[in-house]
Amino acid sequence: MVSYISASYIYPVSAPPLKDGVIGIDANGLIKEILTAEEAESKGITGIKYYQGVLVPGFINTHCHLELSHLKGKIDRHTGLPGFVEQVIRQRQAEEAEVIDAMEEADRKMYENGIVAVGDISNKLISRSVKEISGIYYHTFIEAMGFNPSKAIDIIAAAIELKNAFKPLSSSIVPHAPYSVSDELFHQIRLEGEKNSDLMSIHNQETPDENVFFEHKTGSFLKLYEFLGLNIDFFEATGKPSLPSYLPRLSTKQKTLLVHNTFTSQSDIDFAVDQHPSLYWCLCPNANLYIENKLPQLDSFLRAKLKITLGTDSLASNDQLSIIEEMKTLQDHFKIPFEELLKWATWNGAAFLGIEDRFGSLAVGKTPGIVLLEIVENSVSNDVDNYVDILISGKIKRIA
């Protein structure tokens, strides 16, 4: 049986917005029809449920750390990344039941917040039980880290074992960050990833100290390595920022997500675009404000027409796991048009994860999830051909 819903506007993402458009969906959320108001009237469709607001596809959260959900409210703000990492290490250990309960609650909240798919960072198997029964699609990025090159073989072997344990769930092995992965481990990750055509993800330039470390081997990362008991005498400064120092070690054959990019410069972007043809750039603005109290230089990203996605990071670095809240923050700080933000939050994320056949846009034959987004009153034109930017209120309701 097909039911029909309508709203002030429908934003398919893959097609122009429809004023008072109508969507026909079955009991499983499969889209059977998308109609203009005139088409619905001409077909004599009745019993249409009308919503005040905008109907959009479900959101794609391309960067999350579900297994850190139990750290909500436990990590100080504005510590800078090295201080944040140290706090997470000190407080990460907890009873298994506490960790699972927190993950289940976070997963439920993400579903309610209209998130339909997540790219999730994992260091352990503990999140598998939550992901197996979730209404959300998960791709798990199994994080490999180790700055000592002599341990690379053992680290990649453990990562492969963990990846096998996550089967049949979708997963891939990825480097944590350039400052925590040796050249040899980068090499092993690349070999494994190319063999399986895996998705790649890496934390990139989340703190100015990352660039300082690669350029001069100075800064607060030295204190972090001391805290971790790591001898890094083998490391030599490259004289270049982080991104041009490590990006050539990643395979250009794999779709790669650079996450955070808080301190990525125009020259870094120019280098990356020239170096790698399959890059996506994930923004996690609320986490950036939580940790560094800084946002990326977004004008450079827009000029370069980068493929941008959105992420929430973890509840250790965010007050909620909500893509609409990330959109609100970007709109508040940068005045990004709603239609552009929506593409970042839906289609681009689905394209990166390779799930655009199901998610990312409202289209016949898809089950993308449907979210009702309330808008600020009088923030959109009555003429769909001349609509103005929609101001996001943050109030949402999952419809399908």
From TrEMBL:
<dbReference type="InterPro" id="IPR011059">
    <property type="entry name" value="Metal-dep_hydrolase_composite"/>
</dbReference>
<dbReference type="Pfam" id="PF01979">
    <property type="entry name" value="Amidohydro_1"/>
</dbReference>
<keyword id="KW-0378">Hydrolase</keyword>
<dbReference type="InterPro" id="IPR006680">
    <property type="entry name" value="Amidohydro-rel"/>
</dbReference>
<dbReference type="GO" id="GO:0016810">
    <property type="term" value="F:hydrolase activity, acting on carbon-nitrogen (but not peptide) bonds"/>
</dbReference>
<dbReference type="InterPro" id="IPR050287">
    <property type="entry name" value="MTA/SAH_deaminase"/>
</dbReference>
<dbReference type="InterPro" id="IPR032466">
    <property type="entry name" value="Metal_Hydrolase"/>
</dbReference>
<feature type="domain" description="Amidohydrolase-related">
    <location>
        <begin position="54"/>
        <end position="385"/>
    </location>
</feature>
<protein>
    <submittedName>
        <fullName>Amidohydrolase</fullName>
    </submittedName>
</protein>
